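re: ur question from the group chat, yeah i did fold both. here u go
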Amino acid sequence: YFHKCLIINFMSKNPEFVKFDKVDKSYDGKVLVVKDLQLDIAEGEFITMLGPSGSGKTTCLMMLAGFETPTNGQIYLDNKVISDIPPHKRGIGMVFQNYALFPHMTVYENLAFPLRVRKIPKDEADKKVDKALSMVSLQGFEARMPMQLSGGQQQRVAVARSLVFDPQLVLMDEPLGALDKNLRESMQYEIKHIHESIGVTVVYVTHDQTEALTMSNRIAVFNDGKVQQLSSPDELYERPVNSFVAEFIGENNTFAGEVTDISGDKCKVKLNSGTEILANPIVAKSKGEKTTVSLRPERALIDPETKMDNNHKGMIEEVIYHGDHTRLRVDLLGNKDFILKVPNSSNRMDIKEGREINIGWNSIDCRALDPK
């Protein structure tokens, strides 16, 4: 409910608060690292640019910050073209992976620096610093030097510094990449809650899918300089539009085959192993098309109690215990690396390597996408 309210809230503001309008970027005049980017970001939204290294996501962030210039197209901030405005005059907060704190300044001085540059009176600056530190639970740390802080505390100071001058927009470039797993997860929630409480627009760059799914209102998945899909986290995971997104977001089982029949919301796919399965024709449009069928591990069940669209026998090749679930690698329909996730319970003690099992899944969860 809260997530829906947040979406309604930011969509009721300027829906084109940040706008990339047909933006290209080339560093050498030949190869485009960003291609014809058309992207609107609503005021108050938390949007993540997600993708592998070299996909163009960081270049987009750097163009928005003003550290790079578009080769073609325009970037707008609050309906104004910002291509000719230098970085320090754009009113944008930034958080980097390496914190970028001034090592010779105290925490207070680091936070006061962007206020001093903007000629904010000291009394007002003190209040803003106190407010920013309270947002990241670091009151009382004003006199510390950065080297006297842990990595997580330094990153909190960097987040506070990006917010202290009440920016219109905050850009975050892999800000949690240097933190250990537990600290990284707690900081994800902390940044998410700060965003929810103050409603600032955030553009976040990462290659970590879990981070993107946890924090974002919407996610733009980049590959080869283009946005492959722009959707809410649940839409992205449950309904990927192509094979790249299906593979990049979460775990995914795939089968290669050819469409033999299409009828309404189902299609038959003849796999390379010779077996036919029923799938959801997302990209497949006609008989004879090559396709890659995508199925999430948790959507397939062992010995399903009710009949499902697809029921096949497989052989357990490997059993890996993961605490709350057991991960099975199964030889199924020609795929020797089919993954199943089975919740751990007392009646699952019979799962062992070499056992033949019945596996079922429904066609709605089995998506016929573009061939890989």
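okk and heres the other one u asked abt
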Amino acid sequence: MGILFGGVASLLYGLGDFVGGEATRRAPAAANVFGAGLIALPLVAIAAVVLGGTASAADWAYGGTAGMAGAVGLVILFAGLARGKAAAVAPAAAAFGGAVPVAVGVILGERPSPLAWVGIVLAIPAILLCSWVADRSGLPGGGLGYGIAAGALFGTYTVLISRTGDASGLLPLIPARAATLVMMVVLALGGIWRMSSAIEVPKGLVAAHGVLDVSGNVFLIIGLRSGSLALVSIAASMYPAVTVTMARFFNAEMLRKRQVLGVFLTLVALALIALG
């Protein structure tokens, strides 16, 4: 059941990432993340209160720290999708976002099956094939660095949010969302982006991203509560298929044969890990 919830989270993340990438073509990534956070925070707060739960100080701390990691990861991902290629950035982010929880899960005592390890090994050349593109922006590997950095932070988010207690329900998502807003303000005060650019964001796209992303987070935390960290996190990392498909049909982003092979191998690798 946990893997099923992870799969639903993956679908929502894929749609949200595409929408977020589109928004970042029109306004700074940090401004879009800030706007999405303003939409998502009251939604998740209402859901958490309605469903109820009892959160400890540790649950709130894990949620807040996870939110900070996820916020920076989103900014990096959207910047990569806007400047690079979805077929390079999204799979790299997904692979590394899944690899971090797998590594932590093994350290904590989880033991993936041989089939799962085959999938992990297969993911390495898959990422290289996806990233091997001719990029007019001049970004090395079509934005591979963006995907790796974003994925590492997404994986950190998953690990931290998985440490919250079952009794806390969705309450840890409240500090996670609040931390996103705080992090964006800190980046603005540090001169990384201008708060005034928040008025430039495409409100419809940003609102859609906020709803999709927080919905994905809800399904992810439910999945982690009912399944293993390693397998659920990998199931939730299969969103590149959605992101790349959306980019292909809505932006007419052409994929070379090696890219198609890379995306296919990425999905096979993730599937093998999930089945294992």
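fwiw on the second one: Residues 87 and 244 are 6 Å apart (CA to CA). The two ends are 14 Å apart (CA to CA). idk if thats what u expected
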